[in-house]
Amino acid sequence: MASPGAAGSIRLDKLLWYLRFARSRSLAQAIVAAGHIRLDGRRVTRSSCAVHVGQTLVLPVGERIEVIRLLSLPTRRGPASEAQACYRKLDADTPAAATPAISDDGNTVLANRSGSPIE
C-alpha cells in the first residue's frame, strides 16, 4: 500500500484520526457521516473522500468550530506535536471573534468598514 504522501491524498476519516481530531477511525467515520465536516466549503458525508494538501477543513472540536488548512499530509498517527505541524488554524486571528456583538448594556454593536462600532 502506498504512503499518503506518495499518492498526494488521504482519506478524510484517516486524516481526522491521524491529526487527533477523532479518538478512533470509526468515530471519525461517524463524524463525517453525520455531515459535520466541510471540505473547501462543501459538506462532506463520505469518509472515503480524498483530502489534499492546501485544502481547508471546517470541523467541530468540543464546543467550538475549528477552521484549518492542511500544510502537509501525515504519514502516521504520531504525537500531538507531529499532528499539529501538519495544519494551521485559520480562525484564531479573526478580528471579528475578538469584537463583541453585544455591548455590556445589552445593545447590539455593529462595526462599519473602518472597524469602529456603530450603536
Automatic annotation (TrEMBL):
Region called Disordered, residue ranges: 97-119
UniProt lineage: Bacteria, Pseudomonadati, Pseudomonadota, Alphaproteobacteria, Sphingomonadales
Protein name in UniProt: RNA-binding protein
Native organism: Sphingopyxis macrogoltabida
Keyword RNA-binding appears in the UniProt entry: yes
Domain RNA-binding S4: 10-72
Record-linked Gene3D superfamilies: RNA-binding S4 domain
One GO MF term attached to the UniProt entry: RNA binding
Record carries keyword RNA-binding: yes
Composition skew (Polar residues), residue ranges: 105-119
